[in-house]
Design goal:
Length: 406
């Protein structure tokens, strides 16, 4: 059985979530907007899902909008806030390390006259709240800063970020908590955010389901028109089973979080210690302010994508960084923003643990990574040596023929 250390990409669906969903995929199949009994049953399930997701993050049920996942939540948050705020201003402040569902949404908005200011991050991927503060002008309507980074696991100083944003009246604060939700305490009041994005598949829920917290009274324009679903904030018949699966998985993740996090932190630290001994390997992301489950590194002189392929063949599933970007030859915008030259960023590898990861799997993963790096280095050295020898032979032959001609 291959080892799965790519929980930042997605997590397996929890049995409890599946069991909670099944009745709503079978007998309770009604449309929650229908007034009859079938509809009312589905509505009751959906209402309960709102309540449970809300209670897991300290929100009110009416403040939860179910969506199709993290990307939609992020699109809805930034575009919805931008269009709603356009009469007051056109400036949006963000960081250079956001997920593309935020970053590309903002680039799209730029085409319509919004001004996007990307605040840089330090070597660890952290934004400086004072720099962010300085970027906010009287024309700013929105600030979007992710809670935790999906590639390097750095957790942003959200309390300080929120405190700075609150100095500016009328500026909305959004956070992408898609990676953070499984691993960090999420309390929307403590975080003091107006909008927060979640995706069910990052914490044992189904794929294609997400939620967005929208603080009551927040001015946000729906980005999808049609029916009155989700209090007019997201038209379309809701994925009732999905919402119920998400609520079940989130409730469990919150209840188990302290114990799971403590265990994962220890496992991750053991793996990090082992990999640190590899020559030319460097950990990326913040050493302390970070997700407990994810370990990201750059390996000097190697290509992360080739390493991932070799590890897959050896029985270890991991990634170079963002799953959405795998297959693209682009160097990570996150590592670039953190100051890594492209040559170093190319060697990125991310191992992300999950609640079902065992100590034996981590031990074996460490061995596989060591071996894959050693094998790839040997291969690279032998190519260089053969290439060098061939070049020397070629040069020698040329010199000899030139001497003869001369
Ligand atoms: C930080 C972050 N935001 C947003 C997303 C997008 O979520 P989804 O895949 O549910 O659209 C991801 C997914 O990897 C993510 O890591």
């Amino acid at each position: 059985m291959p080892i799965y250390l790519d929980h930042a990409a997605t997590t397996p669906l929890r049995r409890e979530a599946l069991e909670a969903m099944l009745p709503y995929l079978t007998e309770h199949f009604g449309n929650p907007s229908s007034p009859h009994g079938f509809g009312r049953r589905a509505r009751a399930g959906l209402d309960e899902a709102h309540e449970r997701v809300a209670s897991a993050i300290g929100a009110r049920p009416r403040e939860i909008v179910f969506t199709s996942g993290g990307s939609e939540s992020n699109n809805l948050a930034v575009k919805g806030a931008a269009w709603a705020g356009k009469t007051r201003g056109h400036r949006i402040v963000t960081t250079a390390v956001e997920h593309h569902s935020v970053g590309y949404s903002l680039r799209y908005l730029e085409k319509f006259g919004f001004e996007i200011v990307e605040v840089p991050v330090d070597r660890y991927g952290c934004v400086d709240p004072d720099e962010l503060d300085a970027a906010i002008s009287s024309r700013t309507i929105l600030v979007s800063v992710m809670l935790a980074n999906n590639e390097v696991g750095t957790v942003q100083p959200m309390a300080e970020v929120a405190a700075r944003v609150r100095r500016h009246k009328g500026v909305l604060l959004h956070t992408d908590a898609v990676q953070g939700a499984a691993h960090l305490d999420i309390d929307v009041a403590a975080l003091d955010v107006d909008m927060l994005s979640l995706a069910a598949h990052k914490f044992g829920g189904p794929k294609g389901v997400g939620a967005m917290y929208v603080r009551h009274g927040t001015n946000m324009l729906a980005q999808q028109q049609g029916g009155a679903q989700e209090r007019y904030r997201r038209a379309g018949t809701e994925d009732v089973a999905g919402a119920i699966g998400m609520a079940a998985a989130l409730g469990l993740a919150v209840a188990e979080r302290p114990a799971v996090q403590a265990r994962l932190r220890t496992l991750r630290e053991g793996l990090a210690r082992r990999l640190r001994a590899i020559e030319g390997l460097q950990e990326t992301g913040h050493p302390v302010e970070r997700l407990a489950n994810s370990l990201s590194v750059v390996v000097r002189g190697l290509d992360g994508a080739s390493l991932v392929m070799a590890l897959d063949l050896a029985g270890l599933a991991c990634s170079t960084g963002s799953a959405c970007d795998s297959g693209s030859t682009e160097v990570s915008h996150v590592l670039r923003a953190m100051g890594y030259p492209d040559e170093e960023a190319k060697g990125a590898l991310r191992l992300s643990l999950g609640r079902e990861t065992t100590a034996e799997e981590v031990e074996e993963a460490g061995r596989l990574v060591e071996r894959a790096i050693a094998t790839q280095r040997e291969a690279a050295a032998s190519v260089a040596a053969t290439g060098g020898a061939a070049l020397a032979a070629h040069e020698g032959a040329r010199a000899a023929s030139e001497a003869k001609a001369g």
